[in-house]
Fold this protein.
Amino acid sequence: MLPPSWDHHPTPVTALTPDPLTPTRDITHAHFQAGDTVVVLKGVAGRELWGDAMRVVAPSWHTPTDEDGWRLRDATGGAQSYVTAHPRYLVHLSRRCPDCLIHLRAMEDALLARFSDRDELIDCGWYTTTALGQLVHITDLRSGR
Ligand SMILES: [Zn+2]
């Protein structure tokens, strides 16, 4: 199996798709720490998952969920280099992490078959970023905050 490619791709095609796992993922805030490298999964590209790789910077309040989050730095983020995310949005890249690997594999199992006939970069439309730099999963927007 090829390793996932976390590169930033220029022109994703949005194909709104339910996120099968992230909204109910059970992961603690303390699972992550400053300095970790993580990815926020965004969709599918060429039969692999893709996402935005970022560095965990510091604890930060995630206002859309009113829960503890993490401030992240996106080295290629330009004007939005820093965002605050909920821990369940994050998957470890920086070290071998069984918990995150299980989540990644489960996401692959749920999504790759759905797009097996598509070669373009698919953005599943799960995340938006608020004007205040809060990364919000679509299901957390719907919860009404
Ligand atoms: Zn992990």
